[in-house]
Amino acid sequence: MSPSAAASPSSRAGRLGVGIIGAGRVGPVLGAALAGAGHALVGISAVSEASLERADAMLPGVPVLTVPEVVERSELVILAVPAAELPALVSGLAATGAWQPGQLVLHTAAQYGTEVLAPALQRGAIPLAVHPAMTFTGTSLDISRLGEAWFAVTAPAPVLPIGQALVVEMGGEPHIVAEADRPAYAEAVETAVSFSSAIVDQAARLLRGIGIENAGTFIAPLVRSSVEAALARSGASTIDVADLLADTGGGFDNPPASEE
């Protein structure tokens, strides 16, 4: 079923009209996952050519709207924007009176809990901070990978079950992270992603420097075994190494493109 064919919020109990602000790698994937759970996608904001193409590929038939239009039409607003842009976006929409009482507002930034959504909360919105602990490619491959991912969920106690339920609907596993612990959580995520990427890139570059052109293929078995051993020491029982390859753009010779 295409996202645009999802049932309307009024036709199915518990279904929401979902709007997405941000058509980078994360927003369209989460939107597609929620559409697959039966929620209705009412619109997505996209500006750049790349984001417009991604929105069309991942969410065919979903209207591309302005940010205010997305907020106006949505029962659940997903703010999938870079963390640096989030505070100004939330406060700016509050200043224009865009947030609606009872509206769910969910952001995906690792470093923030729900405090950053205070301007929306003050206008009656329900704040949720939900971060999927995985690297996104911005393609349909990510939808199945959500089923193997943990999501950090932060929310006021009365609405915490809503955030957890949305994660389960997207196929993920929710884990509660306290508001005060979000900076440490974000640091852990950034360390894991940036350190592993930097080490692999450096090793591949050194190998290419001595004439090994297929450096990614050459180093892949070593990286697999090393990561599996490290995860085993940390308490993880298994690793899907295909995810590791996907996170480096399909192979260690091709590092992933930067996020919009």
UniProtKB/TrEMBL annotation:
Pfam families: DUF2520, Rossmann-like. Residues 150-234 form the DUF2520 domain. Residues 10-132 form the Putative oxidoreductase/dehydrogenase Rossmann-like domain. It comes from the Bacteria. InterPro entries: DUF2520, NAD(P)-bd_dom_sf, OxRdtase/DH_put_Rossmann_dom. This is DUF2520 domain-containing protein. It comes from Orlajensenia leifsoniae. The lineage of its organism: Bacteria, Bacillati, Actinomycetota, Actinomycetes, Micrococcales.
